Amino acid sequence: MKIPLRHSMMSRSSARLFRPARHICSSSGAKRALGTSIPKAATPATSPSPSPPTNPEGGEARPRRPLTKEEREFLSSALRVNQAGELAATLIYTAQTPLVTRSDPHLKPLMKHMYDQEVGHFDTFNSLIAKHRVRPTAMYPLWSVLSAGLGWGTAMMGREAAMACTEAVETEIGDHYNGQIRSLLEMADRMERGGGGMGPELKELVGTLRRIRDEELEHLDHAVEHDAKKAEPHWLLTGFIRLGCKGAIYASERV
Amino acid sequence: MHPPTPSSGALRRLGTQRWTTAAKTSRQCAAIHMTTRATVPSTKQTLPSHAVRAAVAAPSSPTLPTVTQTAQRRTFHSTDHPPPPGPFGATESALLAAAYQHVPEHGFSSAALAFGARDAGFPDISTSVLPDGEFGLIRWHLELRKAELAGRAEEMFVGEGKGKEYKIPEKIEMLIWERLTGNKEVIGQWQQALAIMASPTNVPVSIKHLAELADEIVYLSGDKAVDPSWYSSRAGVSAIYASTELFMTSDKSEGFTDTRQFLRRRMEEARGVKGALGNVGQWVGFSAMGALNVARSWGVRV
Ligand SMILES: [Fe+2]
Ligand SMILES: [Fe+2]
């Protein structure tokens, strides 16, 4: 990973503003570790094992319970916001790619790779939304306009800004997916203790979210490798975009 | 109101408070009983024994159609966790299923409810456990007819993939007609029912029912669009269904052929260029990417 040369020339105040961003840049590995270490931490060592052999009555597993209203609402808004986020990601890359690859043709394979992964994510959530009969976000047209505008705008500012956009977005998205994984693991834990356990489709969802989270964090690494930190002014750009992501996540979970 | 109605105002005044709480508890008992096969809990002695009997017996009653297990599919539909409890408790279900048999004759009225209570073996006062009276009976009709659609869809579209192909709007039209057919038996009472549904306190629930029906119809039609056409298709189906349903209440033609034609015309309008169902399956409305792509195809370096 390249260290920006300008770093040493920075004033104290901008260095302070820079610090959170540096932390982000070095934290993608930590995030991955955090997300996957949660299950063990969240499972109390004392929790009674519901495994069939210890069950006195013939080893019959108890039936799965219905999802509670809260659980269904959590899952609906999680799928809704994820679909919106992946829609935005595909549009950001679609808008950025022609501009970025014109000035830096060697980035063509990377941009295509990241775009293809985003399309995969988007397809995944589209089919999950249809399968589970979740309402897509009503902000869909607005997110389309804003994300295409964001991709286009940052790419117009140059490769560094385009990469800073990816860095900011993926930082938020990585956190966001980690939060969902955590909630799902807690849900799984509650269901295990209740006896019936969690159905395969929800277990699979945890795996899907982990895989997508890892891919997003790879995008973050790619962005930093390709000079995201050299964007000027980096702190303003990433701060602004991350704030925008937070707002969009908040709204899409609800509307 | 109706001479044969076994109504008793005195009893009603006497027991309302206790009955409401008792019914709630018995509903819980029944729910527990159904799911875990536990014995009826010790709250039994506080309940009138016939209420417990009826509540427990109700779900297994084979003759009357019931909606107890109709899930509210609007939030998150799981395929491997059982559906959440339906909109009606066991006592309520038993009472409403029995009362529903009297609707063609007595309308969605307290008379029908009273007859139903008598048939189901409840004392007359038990109609007071229904929080919304006649509207509850209307909701029963709405839930029951909506719940039937999935099974009917399977029968109607059975030929699909074996030489027979339906377009999504065709299937939507078939499903709307199928659902309207479910109003035939009560069509003489339906204008009055619509008036009850449109009263201010009931409007939110009535709209929710319409939205759920539209969602069910679009889902059963196989439309898997999850872009903004998700909204336009459901709004279109709601509007077409509601207007056709109203038309049907004053249709005197043989076999409701006028209603059938009315529905056909509404569907054709909707399928037009600007119609709600014009783009079922894909979103071709304004998109920023569309604008950017147009500019790029013109050679603008953006
Ligand atoms: Fe993604
Ligand atoms: Fe990404």
From TrEMBL, chain A:
Annotated pathway: Cofactor biosynthesis; ubiquinone biosynthesis
So what does this thing catalyse?
Answer: a 5-methoxy-2-methyl-3-(all-trans-polyprenyl)benzene-1,4-diol + AH2 + O2 = a 3-demethylubiquinol + A + H2O
Annotated residues for binding of Fe cation 1:
86, 118, 121, 216
Question: What keywords were assigned to this record?
Answer: Iron, Membrane, Metal-binding, Mitochondrion, Mitochondrion inner membrane, Monooxygenase, Oxidoreductase, Ubiquinone biosynthesis
The compartments listed are: Mitochondrion inner membrane
Provide the cofactor list for this protein.
Fe cation
Q: How is this protein annotated for GO cellular component? A: extrinsic component of mitochondrial inner membrane
Q: Name one GO biological process term.
A: ubiquinone biosynthetic process
Residues of the region (Disordered) are: 28-67
Which EC number applies?
1.14.99.60
How does the cofactor bind to this protein, according to its record? Binds 2 iron ions per subunit.
Annotated Fe cation 2 binding lies at 118, 170, 216, 219
GO terms (molecular function) for this protein are: 3-demethoxyubiquinol 3-hydroxylase activity; metal ion binding; oxidoreductase activity, acting on paired donors, with incorporation or reduction of molecular oxygen, NAD(P)H as one donor, and incorporation of one atom of oxygen
Pfam families, sorted = COQ7
How does this chain sit within the bilayer? Answer: Peripheral membrane protein
Q: How does it assemble?
A: Component of a multi-subunit COQ enzyme complex, composed of at least COQ3, COQ4, COQ5, COQ6, COQ7 and COQ9.
- Provide the family line: Belongs to the COQ7 family.
Role:
Catalyzes the hydroxylation of 2-polyprenyl-3-methyl-6-methoxy-1,4-benzoquinol (DMQH2) during ubiquinone biosynthesis. Has also a structural role in the COQ enzyme complex, stabilizing other COQ polypeptides.
Report what the protein is called.
Answer: 5-demethoxyubiquinone hydroxylase, mitochondrial
Source organism per entry reads Zalerion maritima
UniProtKB/TrEMBL annotation, chain B:
Q: Spell out the Pfam families in the cross-references.
A: COQ9
Describe the function of this protein: Membrane-associated protein that warps the membrane surface to access and bind aromatic isoprenes with high specificity, including ubiquinone (CoQ) isoprene intermediates and presents them directly to Coq7, therefore facilitating the Coq7-mediated hydroxylase step. Participates in the biosynthesis of coenzyme Q, also named ubiquinone, an essential lipid-soluble electron transporter for aerobic cellular respiration.
Keywords of the record: Lipid-binding, Mitochondrion, Transit peptide, Ubiquinone biosynthesis
Question: Does this UniProt record's set of keywords contain Ribosomal protein?
Answer: no
Question: In its UniProt record, which GO terms are filed under biological process?
Answer: ubiquinone biosynthetic process
Q: Which GO terms describe its molecular function?
A: lipid binding
What pathway does the annotation place this protein in? Answer: Cofactor biosynthesis; ubiquinone biosynthesis
Which stretches make up the COQ9 C-terminal domain?
A: 203-271
Task: Please report which protein family the annotation says this sequence is part of.
Answer: Belongs to the COQ9 family.
Q: Which NCBIfam families match?
A: diverge_rpsU
Kindly report the protein's main subcellular placement as a broad class.
mitochondrion
Organism domain of life: Eukaryota
Organism equals Zalerion maritima
Subcellular location per the Swiss-Prot or TrEMBL entry:
Mitochondrion
What name does the UniProt record give this protein?
Ubiquinone biosynthesis protein
Segments passing through the bilayer = none
Q: Name one GO cellular component term.
A: mitochondrial inner membrane
Instruction: Identify the taxonomic lineage of the organism of origin.
Output: Eukaryota, Fungi, Dikarya, Ascomycota, Pezizomycotina
Q: Which InterPro entries match?
A: COQ9_C, Ubiq_biosynth_COQ9
